[in-house]
Write a structure and sequence with these properties.
With about 70 residues, the chain is mainly α. It is built from two helices and no strands. Helices cover about 20% and strands about 0% of the residues.
Length: about 70
């Protein structure tokens, strides 16, 4: 049994990045200020020389994006 088991109810209510940040801050104690601008927590990425962006296999999910709601 894990030392800490998350309560599934707050996780199931996450439907946006703002909800996720609130959950990480309030439920898991992450040091994220309520005044934090979401753009300060994310970054743009592109493949550099010798790197390739991930490509999904036909019929699979896009590996770069996951929904925040159940399918």
């Amino acid at each position: 049994m894990p030392r800490y088991a998350a309560n599934p109810e707050p996780v199931q209510r996450i439907s946006s990045l703002a909800d996720l940040l609130a959950y990480l801050r309030d439920e898991l104690g992450w040091p994220i200020s309520q005044e934090t601008v979401i753009d300060d927590l994310t970054f743009d990425w592109s493949a550099g020389p010798g790197m390739t962006a991930p490509t999904p296999k036909p019929g699979s999910l896009d590996p770069t994006a996951s929904p925040l709601c159940p399918r």
